[in-house]
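Q: Protein A?
A:
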Amino acid sequence: MAEIHRTRLLIIGAGPAGYTAAIYAARAGLAPLVVAGLQPGGQLTITTDVENYPGFAEAIQGPWLMDQMQKQAEHVGAKVLFDIVTAIDLSRRPFRATADSGGVFEADSVVIATGAQARWLGIPGEKELGGFGVSACATCDGFFYRGKDVAVIGGGNSATEEALYLSNLARHVTLIHRRDSLRSEKILQQRLFAKPNITVLWDTVTEAVLADDSGRVPVARGLALRDARTGEGRELKVDGVFVAIGHAPATALFQDQVEMDAEGYIVTRPGTTRTSIPGVFAAGDVQDRIYRQAVTAAGTGCMAALEAEKFLAAADAETEQAAA
């Protein structure tokens, strides 16, 4: 027989949004269950130095920060299960989810905090040098490349915005695009072309991230490039590489159940974390296609827990009134 877990609030995902929701919900007496998912701790577990999370004067390690969030959530009464939700029915309450272990979760409310993943090129050196010269977030890691040379790979709004942001920190930014024109908005392109320290390499394919193995750990030293028209290869020396080809929200599990936009991000009501289904809330990168920061994810996790508490209180009042 499958084990059935009954809970007032089920939180799916264990990044900054999920753990923050768990902290607030537990302190409100909801005894939430957190199903951690495939990557407990989210994208911060593959991040090295974190300098932009408030409350820490010195750089901290991403995995350590997520470990502390987990311990804090458990300390105040949340239960964290290291399992993966593989199916869910949001058509009626209590909502019912099934996990990879075979366990079943019945919940009066749900917070979806499954996050998003950066899209990667899949080239040699990219994964191996992640956090050691390769990043998918200029806002997170650009600070470490002040006065250095960096490359941004992509041709859409994300790449253009990353290049513009980095141009205020780096000595020089090279934007590498495999086509002969950008897909980004015209106003962004105008700003990009007006920057004297940004160069665009058109019709250029990135084939590998090159490593410098002379130090204690390998770090990125450049890129292997190929001209898409002539086939000629070359190397570009840079200190940092930023892959900016978009993000993919982890929302396949909820397809055709909650409202999503064209890119698969869950749509929430303005100023809230409420989804198209009463009692279901979305927090963090799963519904944030703009900021995608740990601190904003944590903020929406707080919002989701507070809104879930109000939803459940109202539901309880209706039940009591009907029974009177």
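Q: Protein B?
A:
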Amino acid sequence: MTAETTQLSWRDWLLSDRPQSRRQASLGRAYVTWRQFSANRLAVLGLLIIIVLILVAAFADVIAPYPPSIGDLTNAYLKPPGTGDYLLGTDNLGRDILSRLIYGSRWTLYIVVLVAIISAPLGLFIGMIAGYAGGWTDTVLMRITDIFLAFPKLVLALAFAGALGPGIENAIIAIAITSWPPYARLARAETMTVRHSDYIAAVQLMGASPMRIVFRHIMPLCISSVIVRVTLDMAGVILTAAGLGFLGLGAQPPLPEWGAMIATGFKYYLDQWWVAAMPGIAILIVSLGFNLLGDGLRDALDPKESGQ
């Protein structure tokens, strides 16, 4: 009974209509967001998939039964799944596919995180500046954005990756260059919604500079929408990186990147299907996880959807 009373008191404290401090208000908003997010079971499933991916990548050295780049051509050439100790089979160089998938999760997270770190702040900055400044600044920045949006993302990434040369770092740069325009459009729309509001007018009357208004007062209003869009775009980033790897413009052998693994197994797909199918299934599961997580975050963070 005491535990129930304590739980109720904490809940009442978090859901109070009159928070006594900024910390209480922040914790209350976080608690409400989590309740709305956890009510979506598919979103929780997506979150669990991403957590498992992170844990697998963090403990790959412990989990993987074999080294990812060392094979056994004599005894383990193209072994089917379930043969001996090879749960998911082996590839054309006698390497354990499960171990390569486990280590490949690190490269997947590496690509996803770096693309998000590069493209999201860039798009957010450009969109906020264009939306707040207006005039010729808005026109120039949005016409540049339209040029990037006029081309399919994969085609544009192929062009940049081809110009920069093969390699996973160049592939990340190519994907990031092609990923920022949607974030700029979204941030611009959010900025134009609030730039003439009474709240911003009051800040201007207090003497705040335009840069302070953009970064201290407008950016927090745009971040939640950008986070949702980034999460939803991660599946596309993974698929684009896999496509570049498949075409030889991404990760280079012997790196266990999932797209490169599919390219290696493509020539064996009729008889030794598992070589290409297993990394394909891994890409499918992780992409599904990001999409489900993004849908849940959209419902939880969007006030129009959540009814806050």
